[in-house]
Amino acid sequence: MAASLRLRGAASGLRYWSRRQQPAVASLAAVCSRSMASKTPVGFIGVGNMGNPMAKNLMKHGYPLIIYDVFPDACKEFLDAGEQVVSSPADVAEKADRIITMLPTSINAIEAYSGANGILKKVKKGSLLIDSSTIDPMVSKELAKEVEKMGAVFMDAPVSGGVGAARSGNLTFMVGGVEEEFAAAQELLGCMGSNVVHCGAVGTGQAAKICNNLLLAISMIGTAEAMNLGIRLGLDPKLLAKILNMSSGRCWSSDTYNPVPGVMDGVPSANNYQGGFGATLMAKDLGLAQDSATSTKSPILLGSQAHQIYRMMCAKGYSKKDFSSVFQFLREEETF
């Protein structure tokens, strides 16, 4: 089974909770308040750009953490803050019966769960394992089967909102798994996000995330193209953005995460496209969308083109820049 998972990884009933719904806020606050005095440790594997602020929000809510990251330096500030840092995912599973994983790819997730020192080597019966990575939905389903054999529960819960929302605790979680376990997952996820949505069975959280990022990539490229064209036609970029954002072309990429330097503060385009969501990860997610479209015979004409654009960007030195750097790429690449 592990070999089959690695191969798949290499290839690439709605319940809703929101802080905006006041009864749910009170309910979650009561849960957090009741458990503050006797919270058991939560394992957190993967404290990179997204995992780091997510783990910190759990700390703010009073949860002791058991931390692991493949890069030891990423764990230093947690160690300095008095949290436990261990040497493998298996060690996390030995010390915690609720674990969140936040990893870059399917292969990383497979290794963390099924590897030689993976979670499944020491997972305890009844443990709740929540994977917030964005990976192939079929890999999530296979991992869930392996976890179930060990008497534990697996849920996929990828996120949307980016690093800014991770820092502020306003992520959206798209959760796939048995409905009976949703409340237990919600207790933790609600400390890191403002929206927690139960999408259905294992894998449906990943499906929702892939569809979201497919649309996000297309809208970002469209925003970058429109802004580039308008600037070359003589429009001031701030004025053009203002017009777009009061007109029918408005979207998240234009009004919250504008890709043009100087238009907005506090976004990657204002910082030479550093931080944020890397072009490599967007290319990866679009590859997942392409695989899913092929397996379901779903046409994604613009999605396929977006995938090719982000692959070209990665080949031309944009891999570590935020995905909004597609604006810079288009400015520099005048022949397609």
Automatic annotation (TrEMBL):
<comment type="pathway">
    <text>Amino-acid degradation; L-valine degradation.</text>
</comment>
<dbReference type="InterPro" id="IPR029154">
    <property type="entry name" value="HIBADH-like_NADP-bd"/>
</dbReference>
<feature type="binding site">
    <location>
        <position position="284"/>
    </location>
    <ligand>
        <name>NAD(+)</name>
    </ligand>
</feature>
<feature type="binding site">
    <location>
        <position position="108"/>
    </location>
    <ligand>
        <name>NAD(+)</name>
    </ligand>
</feature>
<feature type="binding site">
    <location>
        <begin position="40"/>
        <end position="68"/>
    </location>
    <ligand>
        <name>NAD(+)</name>
    </ligand>
</feature>
<keyword id="KW-0520">NAD</keyword>
<dbReference type="Pfam" id="PF14833">
    <property type="entry name" value="NAD_binding_11"/>
</dbReference>
<keyword id="KW-0560">Oxidoreductase</keyword>
<dbReference type="GO" id="GO:0008442">
    <property type="term" value="F:3-hydroxyisobutyrate dehydrogenase activity"/>
</dbReference>
<feature type="binding site">
    <location>
        <begin position="103"/>
        <end position="104"/>
    </location>
    <ligand>
        <name>NAD(+)</name>
    </ligand>
</feature>
<feature type="binding site">
    <location>
        <position position="134"/>
    </location>
    <ligand>
        <name>NAD(+)</name>
    </ligand>
</feature>
<dbReference type="GO" id="GO:0051287">
    <property type="term" value="F:NAD binding"/>
</dbReference>
<comment type="similarity">
    <text>Belongs to the HIBADH-related family. 3-hydroxyisobutyrate dehydrogenase subfamily.</text>
</comment>
<dbReference type="GO" id="GO:0005739">
    <property type="term" value="C:mitochondrion"/>
</dbReference>
<feature type="active site">
    <location>
        <position position="209"/>
    </location>
</feature>
<dbReference type="InterPro" id="IPR008927">
    <property type="entry name" value="6-PGluconate_DH-like_C_sf"/>
</dbReference>
<dbReference type="InterPro" id="IPR015815">
    <property type="entry name" value="HIBADH-related"/>
</dbReference>
<dbReference type="InterPro" id="IPR006115">
    <property type="entry name" value="6PGDH_NADP-bd"/>
</dbReference>
<feature type="domain" description="6-phosphogluconate dehydrogenase NADP-binding">
    <location>
        <begin position="42"/>
        <end position="200"/>
    </location>
</feature>
<dbReference type="InterPro" id="IPR013328">
    <property type="entry name" value="6PGD_dom2"/>
</dbReference>
<keyword id="KW-0101">Branched-chain amino acid catabolism</keyword>
<dbReference type="InterPro" id="IPR011548">
    <property type="entry name" value="HIBADH"/>
</dbReference>
<feature type="domain" description="3-hydroxyisobutyrate dehydrogenase-like NAD-binding">
    <location>
        <begin position="203"/>
        <end position="329"/>
    </location>
</feature>
<dbReference type="Pfam" id="PF03446">
    <property type="entry name" value="NAD_binding_2"/>
</dbReference>
<keyword id="KW-0809">Transit peptide</keyword>
<keyword id="KW-0496">Mitochondrion</keyword>
<dbReference type="InterPro" id="IPR036291">
    <property type="entry name" value="NAD(P)-bd_dom_sf"/>
</dbReference>
<dbReference type="GO" id="GO:0050661">
    <property type="term" value="F:NADP binding"/>
</dbReference>
<dbReference type="GO" id="GO:0006574">
    <property type="term" value="P:L-valine catabolic process"/>
</dbReference>
<protein>
    <recommendedName>
        <fullName>3-hydroxyisobutyrate dehydrogenase, mitochondrial</fullName>
        <ecNumber>1.1.1.31</ecNumber>
    </recommendedName>
</protein>
